Amino acid sequence: MEILLYYAPITCALAPYITLTEANADFEARPLNFRKQQNKSADYLALNPKHKVPLLVVDGQTLTESAAIQIWIARNFPQAKLLPADPWQELKAISLLSWCSSGIHPYLSRINSPPKVCDLPDAADSVCGLAKEYLSETFNIADEMLAGRAYFFDHFTAPDAHFFWCCRRATQFEIDLSEFPNCAAHFERMQGRASVQKLLAYEKEVQEAFAKAA
Ligand SMILES: N[C@@H](CCC(=O)N[C@@H](CS)C(=O)NCC(=O)O)C(=O)O
Fold it and tell me: If 0-12 CB within 10 Å is exposed, 13-18 middle and 19+ buried, where does residue 159 land?
């Protein structure tokens, strides 16, 4: 089976990179340089007209949307236990994956690019302020979920990888995770995992290659 993951540094594509690594999957990451708009090239648009990452290509078949990609990985590498075995807990994990991708991510995106949601003059501060307020509510909820636990379930699962990305992106926007001690501890713990260290080393390598080619 040929598994390709289209990826870009900093983006949410790091979550499936982590889970593929946790699954010990044999996969090839294909980095896209967003600064060069490689996600909008004709070749990429033919694969993914949404011009986004992550994109998983399995034996030539494409799959978009992080939650679906994570579920594919979990189903195809059952030994890695990337979703809980209990059916109800599995749905709770899928709920968390959906929350990360459709509940949390859009608020991080609008801080990254306020004009995408409001192009009125001088609106950026207000867009970012409201997004940060919402994210604070969100991180409080996650903080309660993580109280007294190392991971969302009784071992590492796919939602931990996606939530790690949410926390990382938040810190890049100067959201102080110390206000959410269980989220901060989860973020630290995740950075100790070999899969995350591998991802961070890979990201650095890609960023250096992009800088050289600039
Ligand atoms: N709902 C999608 C969101 C993916 C997404 O927004 N990816 C961003 C990077 S974090 C992207 O590729 N943006 C480039 C663009 O919109 O052109 C998912 O969860 O996979």
Answer: buried
